[in-house]
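Homework-ish question, so no full write-ups if that breaks the rules, but can someone show me the predicted structure for this set?
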Amino acid sequence: MTPSERLPWTDATWAFLSLRLFLALRWIISAIEKFELNNEYSFANYYENMKRMGEGIASSSFIPSAMALPYAYSLGHLTMIVGVLLLLGVKTRWMLLATTALYVSLSAGLMAVEENEGVAWLAIHVALCVGALLLARHNRLALTRD
Amino acid sequence: MTQDSPHDTVPASGVSRRDFLRTGVAAGAGILLGRASASAVDAPAVLTGASKVLNLALVGTGAQGRVLIDAALPIPNIKFQAVCDIWDYSLRYGERYLGRNGHTVRPYVDFQEMLEKEKDLDAVIVATPDFMHAPHSIAAMDAGHHVYCEKLMSNTIEGARSMVHAAKRTGKLLQIGHQRRSNPRYIHARDRIVRGDRLLGRVTNINGQWNRAVSDDLGWPPRNVIPDATLAKYGYESMHEFRNWRWFRKYGGGPISDLGAHQIDIYNWMLDMNPTSVMAGGGVDFYENHEWDDNVMAILEYPTPEGMVRAFYQVLTTTSAGGGYWEYFMGTEGALKMSENPNLTAAYREARAPDWSPHVNNGIVRPATADIKVKKPWEKPKPTGGTVDVRETAQLEAWDLPVKLDKAIHQPHLENFFDAIRHGTPLACPAEVAFASSVTILKINDAVAAGAKLPYAPTDFIA
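A: Not a homework solution, just the prediction itself:
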């Protein structure tokens, strides 16, 4: 059953698509931004930025570099993949779950460095993910069924 | 003072465990070292109780004396027991004011009489006009008392030198009232910002000022005129000169001494050296009945190991424009504006300088405005903004100092003096150090008079 066979187009459908679009663009733009340094985009800049992030978190918290660095290096790629798949509507529920997990993991990192403003900021995103999951049955315009 | 003195008997509650231990250790060290007689600085720590009530006398209960009274009253374990002033009006005020605050004092007009009758004094606080600092301080030390003397040490270099010699001869402590040296905010600025973490980079320039609006000369109630004979006995020409002594060469060093002395002393203290030359200009531009220059501008040169530091200072008493009083230390990577008024204090980071965010966690600075985003070590650096004009550099960020003085500005300096008496703590501004500042400051008046650049020889600063 494709999403369009489940329920008719309703306000909930538009609400979900708005959330899906927002979260997808949030991830994609966030991923692109990770490749930028001094107004230049490159893989070298990506690894420099991610190294700073991983080492910064590790140096400011109990999280060891062995965990923080692999997480940081993979973060940009993961967010790009999740963002694109969410935009296209590929395995939407699974992508929403992945999105939620990424935001929770990012929140955990900021909790570890006591960056409470950042945690609150990410909590808003987690709440949006929760809302999206609750509305996911209204999904339309998706390439694949869940 | 010996341990037999009745004043060594203090309430048990007045002796802290820490004080007891500190005194015990000091005494023990003296015994172990086999010292037949303790040195001048160490002697009080060995011979007196750590929380011993210090008996004080104050000579000079005018404006500055009252400032020192207010700064001293919150300090525990001190007792004013005598005050001295040749003007009955001030003397009675000081006597009554101290009495209302629990210090019953005996009043004296004659300083020598006070020294002869008050045998159990520990220290004398001198807040008389500058020309009497040397006679009063030396007499007090010769009588066996430690001395806290207001700045400037003297209105003459010879007077200041005689005070240093007296301190050495008598073995008594002589603290000079350059109180910024005990201000924790100033100490933080010097030890952590300028020296420790070198946030200013290489200091290249200093700018300082104390600007005040014109004011009327000080008067006196007609019924409180001091008889001419009494004024003459104590060295004053007239009641007007007695009340406005700061403006007359016989009694003081002029505004550069009254106001500039505090700040130029801090130039030397911050750079840890004395200047090698001074050029200055000034004059009696406004007041028709004053001798001393009401406006003075000076440039001092400090050839530091890192390079030349040129230091400008102005004291204006004809306008309050320019933002009050402050000392501004400027370097290649930042600048530090210091003042006893914390609202005038700030540190500024040059746009080209390394990020100061790590210094926030170290407690050295903190953002002064919400515009400054303290960078987290995991965050990507943001591009800096462009300049408005190709000839100017980017705006400096303003940062605060996280150290606050929640006492009267003179209190820490008095506390340091009392700690030195009790524990042998080093004085923040001992006589020989203040002598160098006196030489620095008094020569500015010479440069004004000469209209020329005058050199300082290294030997000038040695008493």
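Now go work out the reasoning yourself. Hint: The mean pLDDT of chain B is 89.
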